[in-house]
Write a structure and sequence with these properties.
heterotrimer; A mainly alpha (277); B mainly alpha (310); C alpha/beta (440); B: 310 residues; mainly alpha; MetI-like fold; 2 domains; globular; C: 440 residues; alpha/beta; D-Maltodextrin-Binding Protein, domain 2; five-stranded mixed beta sheet; four-stranded mixed beta sheet; 18 helices; 44% helix
Chain lengths: 277, 310, 440
């Protein structure tokens, strides 16, 4: 059922539009990171730098300790991904296998928590963290991120677990296998693709997050990479464009790489979630 | 012998079933416990506190005590011109971004599902806006929109479409559309992926049999594709509308609500009230009002989901 | 049974965190902490080492270096009182302070600007420093500047460096057009500015540009040159009168735009967004806060010859004083030591280094003299440093509702006026009506 040639041509034109629309800003970001300060304030900007330089990256690394910020981001993102998955896995299993009122409430909470705006919780959350002594700490940030990625992670994992027929477990039970053994040997391997996707998703959400970090982190040595960006924006729109673009590019890279890898899993995850959720 | 074994089996079976159910229930709670505690502490409790603040006169101040003041905040809200302004802008923004995004995402999803040759490039590209932190997206587009040194004006001037530089984010009539474009760009991946998943769920045979029946591309779309993806469309557009209405970070970095309040989304307004004026109670009331509005819009979708889950 | 156990654990947990209600007293020991709890004597070395946190939004590189040097030199001289530097980004100073004050985790020494102090002072978050200021410092700073940091009769911030709005000119372009650069004894009036800007404009190039994206500060502060004081009456219930004097500067700006002497797009750009046009020679003259000089020095092409000219004269050359400030949080446990650090910051050479780094005017005469000696006449610095004498107290900063009026009423109204959506009379009416509404 091949479409007619003129349809094909139109499709490629449309595709070209999307490539430009989606990819152009990214290209702009990349080339800006390699431009010198003089070039960044010219009135006739060119797409590619006329005198490319890597100074911006060095400036970002040395003057504002980008390396430390990247390390902080890495610690926070990895911890968030691991803890979220460790919590969500048993929880999603319990919810998928047991049709109870709690399951309805949880699904309700998952959906409702998507609705609640950030502004409602910023100050109460700040106070809670302060009372627990978790303010200005990476642990506090991780806890906040975990709780806020749980809804989407649970949703996705719920879909994946529901897709595994319970007959498999029942068959294993009649074969004499204990519950724990069933879980580890049969269920877990089937969940691995879904787990990979959700873990990586939690990682990226934590890595990219800015506003909670802005509220929670006070000390410069604890700042995560996105917070570093705000440092380049002074008063009255005073911006150090070069280092800003360099920092922005480095900060975006993990997201791009991870998404390139998990794009297929993400699609199947949303399929499962949309159908079963 | 077989009789006795059978009789033993039947007499002991009920007791085993009851124990299993009880054990399953308890097991379930153990599995849920580690998640429940942080969720209650860091999500449910702050939310509840935040909601409650909306019924108080909480404000910034050293040694200030606040008290319950009932529906005063809401009465004030209804009389506040600036609230109605931001509400209106919120509606225009959400509606525009959701609709434009939907059409673009659907086109892109259809293209990605059409077996074209450049798929290896376009699929990851489609996810770029999602991979980028929203702060970076905003800063990036601010650079593109810069009147003198920005790329957009340079390209438009080179193409001969404009003669004088336009201040996209500063002009009263252009700021909201300019910001909407960024909103569309930023939110496209989620919608595209959801629609793509829906499209890929359609069995190929359906398309084949429709083609064999003599349907052309457009007819195939209306009779096979559209009905099949309708549930996904409803789901994702509702969610999109909600996410967009609550949007804060992107527009805040882009315009901070200006010029002259032309891009003051509801959440930006609430943020300004809380952090600019220290009116925590009033800002929380604003948040509560937003939630009610959004819940009302989401009402049907939630109801259906809850019923299915039972 | 498990269910009951779970529920009680949850209740326990919730009770533990519920003590953190939004009460604002945060971690401080109560109302007496501000003045009475301090040990006797000035910055006496305490027996146990203490740590002070100092948040600053210093952004431009030389200033950051100067600030670090101040902290390092203090820590070396005072081993028992360690000052910890916290860098804050300039765009979120206010918001961060709101969260920190509410949560009781504000830094001991706070770098902010005087315009922002009104709200925090009224909310009681800033310590009263009036009695802690040494006499030498008091006499080194002009009275009008002290007035600009006095709220409710209390000085809640020590002024450090001040900004004026001055015009940066491209000397080559001026020379080509046969326009002489004004000198301190013969400054330009706004009429001169308009006439010269017209001479310098042709086609897509304009003689004058002003990044008025945040119009209120620029138009009101510089508008003091025409005597527009806006607010009268006592601090409790100030009334606003928007008369001819108050509307003169906006009127002149609009006239320049209509005369095609001023770039119309510049009014919706920020102060630094107009710089690329200035570098490229598109705008011959640019009005901006003088802190911009640091950026021009580092980012402008080497071929650009520029200077700052004396403050433009209306009926006078006065502009509103809105200096940067150092305050002490009321929550701070060591106000005396904090003030001692501020004194250290304010020593002449150190303050001069800060001022030179940020291209802003040090408020003390001694620091001003050092800066003058160092900068000489380059780029018109001698003229600008002397213009510290033109800093006048702006009464509107004292009004508690000023910040809200500024963001809700003034900024949108000025923006609409500059983009020709409303006329001058409507602007005046809306500004004063809005003031009444905000204060009701």
């Amino acid at each position: 059922m091949k479409p007619k040639p003129y349809v094909r041509v139109l499709q490629y034109i449309a595709l070209g539009f999307f490539i430009c629309f989606l990819g152009f800003p990214l290209l702009w970001l990349v080339t800006t990171a390699f431009k010198s300060p003089r070039e960044l304030t010219t009135i006739n900007p060119t797409l590619f730098p006329t005198m490319p330089t890597v100074d911006n990256f060095f400036a970002a690394m040395t003057h504002n300790n980008l390396g430390q910020a990247l390390l902080n981001s890495l610690i926070v993102a990895v911890s968030t991904a691991v803890v979220t998955t460790v919590l969500a896995l048993p929880a999603s299993y319990a919810l998928a296998r047991n049709r109870s009122r709690l399951r309805t409430v949880t699904i309700g909470w998952i959906l409702v928590s998507q609705v609640f705006p950030f502004i409602l919780i910023v100050i109460p959350l700040f106070i809670v963290l302060k009372n627990l002594g978790l303010l200005n700490s990476l642990q506090g940030l991780v806890l906040v991120y975990v709780v806020w990625s749980l809804p989407f992670t649970l949703w996705m994992l719920l879909g994946y677990v529901s897709a595994i027929p319970s007959d498999l477990e029942e068959a294993a039970a009649t074969d004499g296998a204990g519950k724990l053994a069933t879980l580890i040997q049969i269920i877990f391997p089937l969940l691995v693709p879904g787990l990979v996707a959700t873990t990586m998703f939690a990682f990226i959400s934590a890595w990219n997050e800015f506003f909670f970090a802005l509220v929670v982190i006070q000390s410069p040595e604890l700042q995560t990479a996105p917070l570093l960006l705000a440092r380049y924006v002074g008063a009255e729109g005073n911006v150090q464009l070069g280092p800003l673009a360099a920092t922005a590019l480095i900060t975006t890279l993990p997201g791009l790489l991870i998404f390139a890898v998990i794009q297929r899993k993400l699609i199947s995850g949303m399929m499962a979630g949309a159908v079963k959720g | 012998m077989a009789d006795s074994v059978a009789s033993v089996a039947t007499t002991t079976a009920p007791k085993r079933r009851v124990n299993l159910a009880q054990r399953q229930n308890r097991a379930m709670w153990w599995l849920l416990l580690p998640s429940l505690i942080p969720v209650i502490a860091f999500s449910v409790y702050p939310l509840a506190n935040g909601i409650w603040l909306g019924f108080t006169d909480a404000a910034a101040g050293y040694d200030v005590r606040f008290s319950f003041n009932g529906l005063n905040n809401y009465a004030k809200l209804l009389k506040d011109d600036l609230f109605w302004n931001s509400f209106q802008i919120g509606l225009i923004w959400s509606f525009s971004v959701t609709v434009i995004q939907f059409f673009l995402a659907l086109s892109l999803a259809l293209l990605l599902n059409a077996g074209l040759r450049l798929q290896w490039l376009v699929r990851p590209l489609a996810l770029v806006p999602w991979a980028m932190p929203s702060v970076i997206t905003a800063i990036l587009w601010k650079l593109i929109y810069h009147p003198d040194a920005g790329l957009l004006n340079a390209m438009l001037k080179n193409a001969g479409l404009i003669t004088h530089n336009i201040n996209w984010l500063g002009d009263f009539s252009l700021a909201l559309p300019a910001v909407i474009v960024v909103g569309v760009w930023s939110g496209m991946p989620q919608t595209t992926i959801a629609l793509l998943a829906g499209l890929q769920n359609i069995p190929y045979e359906l398309h084949e049999s429709a083609a064999l029946d003599g349907a052309n591309t457009w007819q195939r779309f209306t009779t096979v594709t559209w009905p099949a993806i309708k549930p996904v469309v409803v789901a994702i557009t509702t969610l999109d509308f909600v996410w967009n209405f609550n949007s804060f970070g992107l527009v805040y970095v882009l315009t901070e609500g200006g010029p002259g309040g032309k891009t003051m989304l509801p959440m930006l307004f609430a943020y300004q009230r809380a952090f600019g004026n220290g009116e925590f109670g009033y800002a929380s009331a604003l948040g509560n009002a937003m939630v009610l509005i959004v819940l009302a819009i989401m009402g049907t979708y939630l109801w259906r989901q809850m019923r299915e889950a039972k | 049974m498990k269910r009951r156990l779970f529920l009680s654990a949850a209740a326990l947990g919730t009770a533990a965190v519920s003590t953190g209600c939004l009460s604002g007293t945060g971690g401080s020991a109560g109302t007496g902490a501000g003045s009475a709890a301090a040990p006797s004597g000035a910055a006496s070395t305490p027996t146990t080492p203490i740590k002070l946190s100092f948040s600053t939004y210093a952004f431009q590189e030389p200033t950051v270096k100067a600030t670090q040097e101040i902290v390092d030199s203090w820590n070396k001289a005072n081993p028992n009182i360690t000052v910890e530097l916290q860098k804050v980004d300039a765009s979120s100073v206010h918001d961060k302070l709101v969260t920190q004050f509410a949560g009781g985790s504000a830094p001991d020494i706070i770098h902010d600007e005087s315009a922002d102090l009104a709200g925090f002072s009224a909310q009681g978050y800033l310590a009263d420093l009036t009695s802690l200021i040494p006499a030498a410092l008091k006499s080194d700073v002009a009275d009008s500047v002290w007035k600009s940091v006095t709220y409710g009769g209390k000085i809640t911030g020590i002024p450090t460096i001040a900004q004026v709005y001055n015009v940066f000119v491209n000397t080559d372009l001026l020379q080509k057009a046969g326009i002489a650069v004004p000198t301190a004894d013969k400054p330009w009036t706004y009429d001169d500015l308009a006439a010269n800007a017209k001479k310098l404009s042709s086609g897509d190039n304009f003689g004058f540009a002003w990044g008025l994206k945040s119009p209120t500060a620029g138009l009101m502060n510089a508008g003091l040159a025409f005597g527009g004081t806006f607010v009268t009456g006592d601090e409790g219930k100030p009334t606003m009168k928007v008369g001819d004097a108050e509307l003169e500067l906006p009127k002149r700006i609009m006239a320049m735009i209509n005369d095609k002497a001023m770039a119309p797009t510049s009014v919706s750009m920020s102060g630094t967004e107009v710089l690329p046009g200035f570098y490229a020679g598109k705008y011959a003259m640019v009005m901006a806060g003088n802190y911009v000089a640091t950026q021009i020095k580092s980012a402008a092409p080497a071929t650009l010859k520029w200077t700052m000219i004396p403050l433009i004269k209306g009926t006078s050359q006065n502009q509103a004083a809105g200096p940067q400030t150092l305050s002490v949080a009321k929550q701070s446990k060591y106000p005396q030591q904090a003030m001692a650090f501020i004194n250290h910051y304010m020593t002449a050479e150190k303050l001069a280094a800060i001022g030179i780094g940020d291209s802003l005017i040090p408020v003390t005469k001694s620091a001003g003299d050092i800066a003058a000696k160092q900068l000489g006449t380059t780029n018109g610095w001698d003229v600008i440093l002397k213009s510290g004498a033109n800093l006048a107290d702006a009464p509107w900063f004292k009004a508690t509702k000023f910040a809200q009026w500024k963001s809700d009423i003034a900024t949108p109204q000025y923006q609409q006026f500059l983009q020709a959506k409303i006329d001058l009379a409507t602007l005046g009416k809306n500004l004063s009506d809005g003031w009444v509404k905000v204060n009701s």
